[in-house]
Amino acid sequence: MLPGDGRRCAGEQMAVDESAAVDFGSRTRSRPLFAAHTNAGQRVARGSMYYGEWRLSELGSPIKPVINDEKIIKAIKALKDDSSAGLDGISVKILKLNIYSLIKPLSHIFNLAIATSTFPECFKISVITPIHKKGDKSNIENYRPISQISNIAKAFEKIIKKELVNYIESNNLLSCTQFGFRPGKSSEQAIATVLSYIYNSFENKKKCATVYLDLARAFDTIESIV
To answer: I need a labelling partner for 113 at 20 to 30 A (CA). Which of 10, 57, 135, 151 fits?
Structure first.
């Protein structure tokens, strides 16, 4: 967790800013969260912030930014205005109205997360809303969970996703038959490819067979610790 990780180097004491503790039960829960974020740089400077057994100053000073201000601004502006706020209560409207005031602390947090290979714990906290899919409403298996994460985390994830997609696409790491969740690809192209293969088989008097798979509860099969 970026602000206030409780671990410290052996034999040394970590200074904890009690006012920066995130109290989600408070009506002003957004304020202490931002306090924790904006004070992160000051705590790094005075050597009071640690990641596991590593003092952040050991990473080098200053940390070379990987995510620039322009990328953060684009990511926040791309967020939907009607997106629900996460547990921190910070709406997309608040982020957009204060984007230029928040850009520096957000840039520090995002780049610090990358430099330390650490995804902030406060970004992992979600508000889970069960949505009924079908069948008996008393059966919990008939509900689909909707996760509402922090809008700051959404902006961070958008930036990371774009960088990953650009790298994967530019290095041709995906199969040419992978059509889902790719820019410039669609289900129509997938259908056209399959039909083309079938027609070519018929024209060449070859046998053709297709196998269609649909994984039940596919998301639940993903290893959660990845």
So the answer is: 10
